[in-house]
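Thanks for the sequence, V.! I ran ABC transporter permease right away. Repeating your input here for the record:
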Amino acid sequence: MTTASPAVPARKGATLGWLRRLGTPKIIIIAVVAGLIGYLALVPLYYLIWGTFFDANGFTLGGFARAYGDPRVGGMIGNSLWFAVGSAVLSLCVGTALAYLNVRTDVPFKGLFFAASIIPLIIPGILYTIAWIFLASPDIGLLNKVVEPIFGPGFFDVFTVWGMVWVEGLHLSPIVFLLMVAAFRSMDPSLEESALMSGASRWQVFRRVTVPLTRPAIVAAVLIMVVRSLESFEVPALLGLQNGIYVFTSRIYFVLRSYPPDLAAAGALAVGLLVLALIGVAISNLVGRAGKTYQTVTGKGFRPRPMELGKWRPVMGGAIVLYFFLTVVGPLLVLLYTSLLKFYQAPSADAFASMSLDNYRQLFDLSDAMTALKNSLALGLGSATLVMILMAVGAWIVVRSRIPGRQLVDHFSFVPLVIPGLVLGLALSFVYLRSPVPIYGTIFILLIAYCTRYMPYGMRYAVTSMHQISSELEESAQVSGASWWQTFRRVLLPLLSPGLLAGWIYILVVSFRELSSSILLYSPGNEVLSILIFEQYENGQFTVLAALGVVMVLTLAVLVIIAYKLGAKVGLRQD
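Predicted structure:
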């Protein structure tokens, strides 16, 4: 007994020391952040699968039988693929052509490229779709009024699959443009110059040299756009449902809006959509791994020289002006024009004479509008701030720590990337309808949805910024006696701030305009601007809707300008 007694206090001391280390701020913060990332990513997905495959009697495929037993399901799947692939091809053709002209040629009006690539990203999808209804509806479309003397009434019809492809493809083309600009800038132009010197025409060079060299970027852009189109809700809901054209997202919405709502059938449709999205992402990853075969940037320096277009220069300049009008000027002008009318009508002397600001005055008297604006601002600012705070710590776990399994944090954070917004809303419904915590029906469930949906983007911004900072700075602070929390707060966060601010701006913009994940989760009194616009459209209040849309776009523009001004000050302070 006397020989064993000294070991007991030693073991107790070791245990207490281990517990004290676990109770440090560093371990607590890391554990909380990792737990929140895992919870946000996995719990909704788990409840969605459980609610789809299990009921009170156990395992069941009844939801799949009801969802896919409908004889119209084949048409729905066909429409979904047609819409997704068509939108991806259109956006690829337009975005790639514009990127090539901008990087490789001496095309005029290059200043419009920035506006044509950035402004459509600020315009919410629901407003962009409604603007095209005003332009190309067979009944009220302004373009149809213009061409009616030549082609007859209803020449353009946006309420078709082709109309859906046109609107979605144009709205996605700026994203393809930004992706392809990077690809063209990193490609050695001497390969094209060599082909031209060998007698090839410009079209042959583009088809046989440029396109093969940028194939990984092209395939990745197509697959990203296909996934984005599959999860699109605004275009199918506003354009397709008019003529009974269903895709996965609009069918899920219809099933949930029917009485009584069939959650299991909606979950089965959501699982099918999720599988299609996962297939697209998997193919994209395979193409990305094969990208090394197409590397053209080596240690040899090169300077891209613009290709002279010659007689085609004014033609291409005109095409750029037309694209800028179709994607930016036209939609914004028709919204502004409609917002000044007492009732929607084609342009005429009487219409211009009747213009007033009554719709904007009505907005100030509309309590729902002010509530929706406050909710959108609160959710945008709140979700952007929370996501970037969490992802700053998450990026440290992934990049800096040596914690076993740290890559799981990175993988978990990207799970929501393959979950369409409407599916995420349905998954959160499964979670919080069964939760004892009274979150469902409050604004907090929308905050959870936005944080979950945009977590992957916040992680990407934070991880990229963390990789650019040398670990020597942290080591110097720790050698000087700073704790982990002091080092993180006073050294890392200031250095990460430009990247974190960029992510914050992006999440603020996309959260402010979010509709697909909100449409199933909001409740009266907790509407956001996109929901209110959707309701105004369903009620036929086109002029008030347009005024609300103008206010929404202007608010977003002001927020982005302020954020970028703050970002410039942050950069100056760090220099």
